Amino acid sequence: MAHTVPVIPGDGIGPEIIEEGRKVLEAAADVHGFSIEWREYPFGADHYLDTGELLPDDALEELSRYDGIYLGSVGDPRVDDGVLEKGILLKARFYFDQYVNLRPVKLLPGVQSPLRGKGPEDIDFVVVRENTEDFYVGIGGRSETGKSRKELEIERSLYTTRFGLDVETDAEEIAYQVGQISREGTRRVVEYAFDLAEGRGDDRVTGVDKANVLTDIYGLWREVVEEVSADYPGVEHEFNFVDAVTMWFVKDPDYYRTVVTPNTFGDIITDLGAMLQGGLGLAPGGNINPSGTSMFEPIHGSAPKHAGKNRANPVATIWAGSMLLDHLGEEAAAKDVVNAIGDVILEGETLTYDLGGDAGTDDVGDAVAGKVRGR
Ligand code: NAD
Ligand code: IPM
Ligand code: MN
Fold first, then answer.
1. 159 exposed, middle or buried (CB, 10 Å; 0-12, 13-18, 19+)?
2. Best substitution site from 83, 98, 300 to test ligand 1's pocket, by max atoms within 8 Å of Cβ?
3. Residue 219 belongs to a domain with what CATH number?
4. What is the pTM for the complete model shown?
5. 49-107 pLDDT per residue, tens
6. Residue 254 has what DSSP assignment?
């Protein structure tokens, strides 16, 4: 069996960590009797600065022929905030309708969680982050963006009628960003979460929102969680407010099983989750469209200060590669990769700086690939 996998190394540490990911997946392919043909795409800061191109339509069209894309990270201090993030990463998530962002939070044996006294048996849950709605839909503006007086008047009257805010038309500069969710967009991701919970044998789904204040948007979200839960009598459900959940994740991580949450809160609480499992260098994620093109990446960014130093931890990316293999139907190979990561960490001889070692990015890739071949 041959799999063709498009790969976008991206910016900062992206190319270094992706190289190690590829190395390990190739080892897994050799061992399990399949092959991977990589199709590399140049999108990222350099390409943008050279050509002005972010992620063009013809590339999207081409990428849509594949089941899974492998992504490093995007973001570069030479480019204004948001240009690459929105123009490449979010563009792909939205274009391919990758409505699930699946982010496991799992402490591997041998990794020290910053939470005192917590071990691998205590930290093993999964966050299902909605990935195409909420505050990421891009509805917003600033009064200085060249809008006409008429447009500003309309916007401000919206504030008055909807929110009872008295904003004068010649008021000083304002900005706004509107969150939007839909019943259907919520239903599909919540169903995914309940199905996942059933598959994992989890007895509880926790919905995380802020329905006590943002009552319109997360009121609808909550209503849909209630409705969907009725179809899953074997799985309990409950709600946590997002502020409280940051406290509970730290206090009682062992309580959590499957967590489902809107996009923005999902972004925030999964960096916290990453820390519980030993840091961003260890946390993988998958942007999933169950019937389309998915995309696998570490949840961290391009960490520009570590770029080009052979210092970054490639484990999150290798683990994301394992999720990609699983998605491609290579379940046994996917398991081997995660087990190999576990072996290398438990041995403790080849660790990057963030785990207290001084190994290079490539040393960790070599070590994990070696374990995969030796299993
Ligand atoms: P970041 O995740 O890139 O890095 C934050 C810090 O986490 C780093 O300075 C480092 O200390 C640590 N870290 C991250 N990855 C690591 C690794 N593999 N090994 C060891 N330590 C690691 O977040 P940031 O600094 O806030 O953002 C940098 C850029 O990345 C920005 O342009 C941002 O928009 C972008 N970004 C991209 C993605 C993505 O492509 N998916 C995700 C998040 C941020
Ligand atoms: C992530 C990142 C992205 C997000 C940014 C870079 C657009 O933080 O993948 O978590 O907010 O989703
Ligand atoms: Mn994030």
1. middle
2. 300
3. 3.40.50
4. 0.94
5. 999 999 999 999 999 999 999 999 999 999 999 999 999 999 999 999 999 999 999 99
6. G
